[in-house]
Design a protein that fits this description.
single chain, alpha/beta, Cobalt-precorrin-4 Transmethylase, domain 1, Rossmann fold, four-stranded parallel beta sheet, 39% helix, flat, binds FE3-S4 cluster
């Protein structure tokens, strides 16, 4: 059986950068898990003594350094952290920082803010916290704007992992209904590159193995795309592999979520080779 990796998979730029920051800041804590991969979190804890705390109150005087994770945190929490006697190392992805800066600047200029995204997602909670007024609307569809009376000056940003076609529905609605709309395209392509690659490979493969955290939404998206096209499995570690899956298969495709480290992908490929 042949094994082929998708053309694009695994760590995106922001996650790679955050992991490097963590490796270089030994004996630090992260506020919330740095990335959505339990094995990588465990490796950082064991090899670099980088652990995580769930909220700021857990940071006691023994903790000297705190890493802010890729999704970013609300402005008031960042401020609270800075007031503590700790070194704050900001690993917020630059592509997440961008909408934070835009929201801050445009709200200062008096624009109403429309954010396309999920208001419960940590990235969006962070982004909306940068507005200097409360005329901020977080929506997933244009319908949610229909009963709102916005001012004539509107600035809009999108959650980094959203689809452009869905964002355009919102921006089109705004342009049709308001005089001045400043549209900022803050969508990050990294997730889509992995998705396109999994789509292409799963159409040719007999079986797809998707490696990643079961709580990671981008990993689940890859799995859903793969299983539309062939028999597919989402696994977190090599222990979950079953030799039965590979019987009579000619091509096994491999992909991994944006928080999955390369060492884990390689470990899984070696185990598949042993089994087949
Ligand atoms: Fe950043 Fe895009 Fe990854 S926003 S964390 S590079 S998916």
């Amino acid at each position: 059986m042949k094994i082929e990796k998708a053309k694009s998979y695994g760590f995106c730029f922001g996650v790679r950068r955050a992991v490097e920051i963590a490796e270089n800041s030994q004996n630090a804590v992260t506020l919330g898990p740095l990335i959505h991969n339990p094995l990588e979190i465990q490796r950082l804890a064991e090899n670099y003594n980088v652990k995580y705390v769930n909220n700021i109150d857990e940071i006691d005087e023994n903790i000297k350094r705190v890493i802010v994770r890729t999704h970013g945190i609300p402005k008031d929490k960042l401020q609270k952290l800075k007031e503590k006697n700790v070194e704050v190392i900001d690993a917020t992805c630059p592509f997440v920082k961008k909408p934070q800066e835009i929201v801050e600047e445009m709200s200062k200029q008096g624009y109403d803010i429309v954010i396309f995204g999920d208001k419960n997602h940590p990235e969006i909670k962070g982004v909306m916290s940068y507005a200097v007024h409360d005329r901020v609307y977080v929506v997933l569809t244009p319908d949610e704007l229909k009963d709102k009376r916005l001012r004539e000056k509107i600035a809009t940003v999108a959650q980094t992992t959203r689809k452009l076609s869905d964002y355009l529905k919102i921006t089109n609605y705004l342009i049709e209904n308001y005089k001045e709309v400043r549209v900022f395209n803050t969508i990050c392509n990294a997730t889509f590159e992995n998705q396109d690659a999994v789509r292409e490979l799963s159409k040719r493969a007999d079986i797809m193995i998707i490696v990643g955290g079961k709580n990671s939404s981008n990993t689940k998206q890859l799995y859903n795309i793969a299983k539309e096209n062939c028999e597919s499995y989402l696994i977190e570690s090599e222990d979950e592999l079953n030799p039965e899956w590979f019987k009579n298969k000619k091509l096994c495709g491999i992909s991994a979520g944006a928080s999955t480290p390369e060492w884990l992908v390689e470990k899984i490929i070696s185990k598949i080779k042993e089994m087949t």
